[in-house]
Design goal:
mainly alpha
C-alpha cells in the first residue's frame, strides 16, 4: 500500500502550487542541506560512541 506514481504527481503539483516555481529550488536546497547536516550529526555521534567504547576497553585492560 505504497505511494503510487499518480499520487506522487498530485503531491508534486500541490507543492508547486503552494510554493511557486521561484521558491522550489531554494526549498530543495534547504532540504538537501538539512539531510547533509543530519547525516553529519549521525556520523559524529558514531565516532564519539566509538571513542567512548575504546576508552572503556582500555580502562578495563588497565585494571
Amino acid at each position: 500500500m505504497g505511494v503510487g506514481f499518480w499520487q506522487l504527481i498530485v503531491i508534486l503539483l500541490i507543492v508547486l502550487v503552494l510554493f511557486g516555481r521561484g521558491k522550489l529550488p531554494a526549498l530543495a536546497e534547504d532540504i538537501g542541506k538539512s539531510v547533509r547536516l543530519f547525516k553529519k550529526g549521525l556520523a559524529e555521534e558514531d565516532v564519539s560512541e566509538n571513542k567512548e567504547d575504546v576508552k572503556a576497553i582500555e580502562h578495563k585492560k588497565d585494571e
